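look at this one:
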Amino acid sequence: MIDFMKSWMELGKEWRSKADAPYRMAASVLAVLTIAAIATDKTPAAILPMLFAATGWRSGSEWLITSMPPFLEFRDQGLSHAAVYAFFIAIGILWVLPLIRNRIDGVDTFYDSAGLVWSRAAASCWLILLFAAQTGNVRVVLERILSNAGPTMAGVLAWALGAVAVVWLFGLRFPFLASLGSLLAQVFTAGFNAGANVGLAVLAVPVSVPWTVCSWLFTTTSQAFIEAEEKSARIRAENSPVASGAIPIDRETAPNFGHR
């Protein structure tokens, strides 16, 4: 029993340490499947056999059609629409988190939100949209949200820029408003950077697989050279003296206090 528990613990450690890339690649394939399903008004489960047939794998396509699990036929338009809203709420949370960390920890918003690119969180957003496409027709609600989001974002952007400009102009006349204008400009810049990086992270998920393949094919440094560099850096780190923080003293010239 103890050996069984240890094996499961080791499996969990292995999954946590090396599951990032496989999860991102699987999510990339599912994201492409979701896009195809939305574009054709079909479910992802119905698109998959068509893709297998298009690639010449007839037996796999027939097996998916005849052996499709019954729960994949479940349809609920209300649940589908709720999942679409959950998708955009998740994106909003990813946008707000770097701003909160910027206020609490003083972390630079641009670099903090840039870490969302190729992250598991961005990939998980597509799984929510996959569920929405599987349980209902999401094109209508997506078109409604996106058609309203454009004018809303433009209005918010215009009001934010106007507020910064007005406070800055008044700051020229009233110096005590200059700090408020600087604060508004910082908040606007941080929000824009975070939003741009979150959008890039979500849009990068569908192209994760071809990007990974291309980056591997066109890597200009050999794996042997990378491993040699890592080994050399590890040897240098092991042989370098540990800094203690103490100031080195020349024993011959240092004054000898307390001794005659």
The mean pLDDT is 79.
